User: What shape does this take?
Amino acid sequence: MEEKKSKGEEKPARSLNFIEEIIEEDIRKGKNDGRIHTRFPPEPNGYLHIGHAKSICLNFGLGARYHGMTNLRFDDTNPVKEEVEYVDSIMEDVHWLGFDWGNRLFYASDYFDQLYDFAVILIRRGKAYVCDMHAEEISATRGTPTRPGIESPYRNRTMEENLDLFTRMRAGEFPDGARVLRAKIDMASPNMHIRDPILYRILHASHHRTGDAWCIYPMYDFAHGQSDSIERITHSICTLEFEVHRPLYDWLIREIGIYAPRQIEFARLNLSYTVMSKRKLLELVKEKHVSGWDDPRMPTISGLRRRGYTPESIRNFAEIIGVAKRDNMIDVSLLEFCIREDLNKRAIRVMGVLNPVRVIIDNFPDDQVEEMEAVNNPEDPAAGTRRVPFSKELYIEREDFMEDPPNKFFRLAPGREVRLRSAFIITCESVEKNPETGEITVIHCTYDPMTRSGMPESNRKVKGTLHWVSARHAVVSEVRLYDRLFCVPNPDDPEEGKTFKDYLNPDSLKVVKGFLEPSIRDAKAGNKFQFERLGYFVVDIDSHPGALVFNRVVPLRDSWSRAENQK
RNA sequence: UGUCCGAUGGUGUAACUGGCAACACGUCUGACUCUGGAUCAGAAGAGUCCAGGUUCGACCCCUGGUCGGACAACCA
Assistant: This one.
């Protein structure tokens, strides 16, 4: 037995991504005694989106993989943009995704006292000074990426004066914008972030957690790395745009003289046919292009949840897309693949008709109802069966009938036979039309009682199988058919004179009436189904007893319509 | 005319750290099927941005280019 477990048979370990390689190298070297500690550090100024999900899965995944820990830390150093609503939604979303920060819920604002002390240390060491220039002056003297900046006239104040001024900044003696605390590094550095960056600014604003205790707030650069250090984070993982901040991150830690975490940057996720910046998402919400942060068309975690995505499918997506440093644009079809794969295994099948046409089974007794037994999920025998009523008058999908069909059309047409799923084989005998419009109003068929599912005759080969609903048993519901929010792959890259909003897809939501089999009557919000041959659907929170509302999560793959569309 | 980062099939990620490129999605065949779904079998598709160099041998190392991205908020 033992020897049988040769190398080739061990589970196919996927190769390491570059961050895992760094971590394993650090472990090998005995850095931090092999301890691994990561953190997910959102700013509570918006809802989390699928890009954050990548980061969450990465950070928490690494914590778990290396038997370490992962903190949730709110980077809340800008009171004017941050709100508790966002804090709450972020915690809900991280939990929903399946991750747990235990008792390690932190806020950068928890460290305001300590951060203040760090600033004082820098001042005492002559590494920081109070600058009286206003925002415009500072910006004007910062230079450009290709031209060095000019040193502030306040740069060489004495340590005593700096200390006094900083103390008075904190005491509230000065108005917003009057002064800032700056690091004293190098105004000529080719790295803009090293040109005496601002550490603290005066902001007489009340903070969602510290209230009015402070009127000076640390900048990102002075809060983030120090918070990492305080929490003894070993690997501080962030997105590429912070790469140029790393020298400052390291400088501050070194000059203050505290524990040094290692910052590692990776490429953020871009998804086709959507936008991913909080600013743009907020704009869509505020201008009512969508119903809210949790609109099922939004790439937010709450939107995806409402759309019917599962945490498992999103985690799997995060795993599949990988982690690297090059810019990327992932096709939404990959996300769709992930949710189909997941729901295929678990969603109960049900029949529903969204664009009905009446079918009358001429040889079926008028008032008779037969109960058909239908399999709940062919992928999962344990899901059992249910009963579906069959009667003389049915609905089928209008697209499932053609009066004059091409050869490859396997569905219903005059004289043709099709199977009704879990029921009988029927033959089309004739159609009735609206004389004015030419629209087909009724399709007359006959059924063969010997072909009922399970009976010997039912094995007869027929080309097509249709879903159907007994007209008088149909549960009428609202069905929301969602499509991509934008009609171009990259709305972030508009042509001259246009903005991303010029590419909003006018057909991203279509509301139709659905005629569903009665077994669905008691479905609850969040329940997911496959409407056979159509797609996956979830019961929306707008549902009420007797007035169900469904969201289409994603359509089924449809090689017929794909072939048709290619013509 | 700065600094930093990146460049591998249509998309994304690999390549045991130098041994002529793999996996997934997508695409296309075919089989099977009471979902034109799922499943199964197979195929096409890159010679690794370019030019040199080192080497028996380079996606991998070196040099020089090209292209793309990030950085000039008292945002994060």
Residues 150 and 504 of chain A are 45 Å apart (CA to CA). The longest helix of chain A spans residues 50-65.
